[in-house]
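Translate sequence into structure tokens.
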Amino acid sequence: MNSKIKLGIIGGGGDSLIGVLHRIASFMNDNYEIVGAVFNPVWEDNINFAKKIDLDTSRIYPDFDTFIAKETALPKDKRIEVVSVLTPNFLHFPMAKKLIENGFHVICEKPLTTTYEEAEILEKSLKKSNTIFAVTYTYTGYPMVRQMREMIKNGEIGTIQKVDIQYYQGWINTIIHDKNLRNTIWRLDPKKGGISCCIGDIGTHAFNMAEYLTGLEVKSLLADLNYLYEDNTLDIDGTVLIRYSENVKGVIRASQIATGEENGLQVKIYGTKGGLKWEQENPNFLYLLSEDKPMQVYKPGHSYNSELSLNGTKLPPGHPEGIFDSMANIYLGVAKAIRNEPYDSSEFPVMNDGVRGMKFIEQCVNSHKNGNSWVQL
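Result follows.
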């Protein structure tokens, strides 16, 4: 029986949504044990949180550099094997790079870095190492997203003609209209969030979903972004026209000022023989559209689903699988890779997915600044 993989966590303490999502996901398939962390740069908050979740505090470190120094000094069979980087965007690059260079496997939140240049450097560092690197584009872990991918790959909707992905949230609408309040949000601070807020945060999820599901690469794009106020330097809304090839086109619509919206990621992909629709807020329903048959509804856990979908399903049909299950499937794929077990290449997003995500973000900003012009990806 395999022993549990020793997991370290950087960031994600307190009431962090990302923190609790990763911690629960790591536990769900019984593959990981959290043995060390730096949850917060404030020592009192850091250590108190570790005590709150009942961790051994001997490996709760005051800062990232101490984490690296102490863990690498341990015998190989004792040290942390994989580290989840759950910090604000600007810390992803330096932390991930140092972890790779010191032989740790990495599970990194998206976006991968704050610039495409940093992403390329990180990719070169990984090629020199013998480590696993995953980027948590969480929604790729949903069983019905994986089913959608397999159906498209198997030609069940024919040749793709149109890809329409919308990701609408409304949370910044309660903040953006107050100048003092909007200056307190790290996602709206270019020093911490990078060159984009909306496209960098949720637009990159939509972009990744488009390429993950279709198997196609975006070739060029045209972006129209909205900043709303002159003193707000990062986009909070945007529409991006996409060209995959001469005859395959699409659109990505992302917004954080869609008043009243919660987490409205919606995917619609249309081919010559049919169409597929899926919504993140109702993730257990995948709709297959046809011109000559009634609409069909696919649900998780049934034998008619693909092996990839069923491998990511933990419960019998009728028991809803949600966001924790989705992230857990990514952690499961990483565990297989770390243990050199067979796994499907689509079980977790890799470094190249993160690099392409950064290129997408930068080219959206460039397209907008250049008068909403077409740019190559």
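Note: Residues 351-369 form the longest helix (19 residues).
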